[in-house]
Design brief:
This protein has 479 residues and is α+β, with helices and mostly antiparallel strands. It is built from 15 helices and 14 strands. Strands 5-6-10-8-9 form a 5-stranded antiparallel beta sheet. Helix 12 runs antiparallel to helix 14. The longest helix has 21 residues. It is globular, with a radius of gyration of 24 Å. The relative contact order is 0.11.
């Protein structure tokens, strides 16, 4: 039985038996008027005019009794797996009222309809690689776990692959490898598919093919009104553009169609590379340094085994001066970190990610008329990602404060030295951003306003997926 005994009240059973048409799949891809009426009547019979996550979980349990989706409550092994085991970082562990595990886009649509009907908060988890607390989960609401959305199929001409949002990139690459094909996705196998694509997506071939989002050919999306649509260059073109960097502000994507690329063979020792062996490197300004906190981590056998993670991103133009600022700021703050008495830290890094203007230029031909970032292609950039891993939840506060202070110091130095580029807007790449960083504020003014207008069209006032809406978590557009 998919719902606990405490939920099986006489009213619930009466409502269940009173349904003249079962709440189940009927072959239609959309929720029918009859199904909506039945769900609404069940809600009215059991809960009257009250609204809550309990309402949502109970109706989902009744619906799931007839269908193939499932609802799980605290105490079950699946609940534990969906709320903990599917997340990379324990900073995302939460205690939702229930976990809804749909199997089809129509299941998701019914879930959105029920959550809206009951005014229940909900969160959506795809691959589970997010680290910002609450951004792919919910406390006391309904967690939509997309674990069953693992479909993978090639188009007949093999120029597209259809990918479910419950997959991680390692699974996608393995599937395509035997075909000699590749897609623009995550650089680590355990990164999830949907979050990366909706937030941009950096790849080892981005300088040639653009961001991962610029290689999406279509999206299947469940909207705020529980309808299912396809967004592509020929259908819902405005939504298609908005999903190129618009995150989870427009709906729940239940399928991605991605452009495939051939895997080219690479000569591992071409003669031209041998000339690089003759280069003498001047390390005067970037000497190897070993602050106490680094020594502490290098002595830890569990270097990468930490359970808690945080990221932050800062940006500058690609220049020697900017690199020196980032390097010096990072090591200065690493020295200060040791004085905070942090004992469970296992890993802290500063990664400099080059973003060539060719990556930005590719977006012009992505089928959507560009993406929503609004980045200037007049500059080359470096996006600096600071990553910390630790184990003790009691140290979440001081570690995140240290990370915020260090990022702000780096940003101030970039601005003071006029090293930001991008017309003075320091871009905040949301897939590597820390809680509190306003990613959309760094988008182009015209692009941000267009996103807000499109959100208003598909989700008026953002009541479902907006900043103050039912779907919590993620980087949200301003109201």
């Amino acid at each position: 039985m998919r719902f606990p005994t405490s939920k099986r009240t006489a009213a619930a059973v009466a409502a269940l038996l009173a349904l003249t048409s079962p709440i189940s799949a009927d072959g239609s891809s959309q929720i029918t008027t009859t199904e909506k009426s039945n769900i609404t009547n069940a809600k009215s019979t059991i809960f009257g005019s009250s609204f809550s996550a309990t309402c949502g979980c109970t109706l989902l349990s009744i619906y799931s009794f007839f269908g193939e989706s499932e609802v799980f409550y605290s105490g079950s092994s699946t609940y534990a797996s969906e709320t903990q085991g599917q997340f990379w970082s324990q900073t995302l562990w939460t205690t939702p009222k229930c976990v809804f595990v749909p199997r089809t886009a129509k299941d998701v649509a019914k879930g959105v309809f029920i959550a809206t009907l009951c005014r229940s908060e909900f969160g959506v988890r795809g691959g589970g690689h997010m680290v910002v607390p609450g951004y792919a989960s919910t406390n006391d609401g309904i967690l939509f776990g997309l674990s069953n959305f693992t479909s993978l199929s090639l188009s007949a001409d093999k120029t597209s692959v259809f990918v479910g949002p419950g997959l991680r990139w390692g699974q996608v690459y393995t599937f395509l490898q035997s075909e000699g094909l590749y897609v623009l996705g995550g650089r680590l196998a355990h990164v999830g598919v949907p979050g990366l694509l909706l937030g941009g997506g950096l790849n080892f071939f981005s300088n040639k093919y653009g961001f991962a989002m610029d290689n999406v050919k279509s999206y299947e999306v469940v909207l705020a009104d529980a309808t299912i649509v396809t967004a592509s260059p020929t259908e819902h073109e405005d939504l298609f553009w908005a999903l190129h960097g618009g995150a989870n502000n427009f709906g729940i994507v239940t399928k991605f169609e991605l452009k495939t690329h051939p895997i080219n063979k690479i000569d591992s020792n071409p003669a031209i590379f041998q000339e690089f062996d003759q280069i003498t490197y001047d390390t005067t300004d970037f000497a190897i340094r070993d602050p106490p906190v680094i020594s502490q981590m290098l002595d830890d056998a569990g270097l990468m085994s930490a359970t808690r993670h945080a990221f932050r991103v800062q940006a500058s133009i690609a220049s020697y001066e900017a690199l020196k600022i980032a390097d010096n700021t990072f090591f200065e703050y690493c020295n200060n970190l040791a004085s905070l008495g942090i004992t469970s830290l296992t890993f802290v890094t500063l990664a400099a990610q080059p973003i060539q203007n060719t990556t930005i230029e590719v977006a012009v031909n992505n089928g959507a008329g560009g993406n929503s970032f609004g980045l200037s292609a007049n500059d080359n950039y470096i996006w600096y990602v600071i990553n910390l891993n630790w184990d003790d939840p009691a140290e979440d506060g001081p570690i995140n404060m240290w990370l915020e202070n260090m990022g702000n110091a780096m940003s101030k130095a970039f601005h003071d030295q006029n090293l930001v580029g991008n017309n003075g807007r320091e871009f905040v790449y949301m897939n590597d951003a820390q809680a509190g960083q306003d990613a959309f504020a760094s988008y182009g003014d015209a692009e941000r306003q267009r996103l807000i207008e499109i959100r208003q069209h598909y989700d008026p006032d953002g009541k479902v997926f907006g900043k103050n809406g039912l779907c919590k978590g993620g980087f949200k557009l301003p109201v």
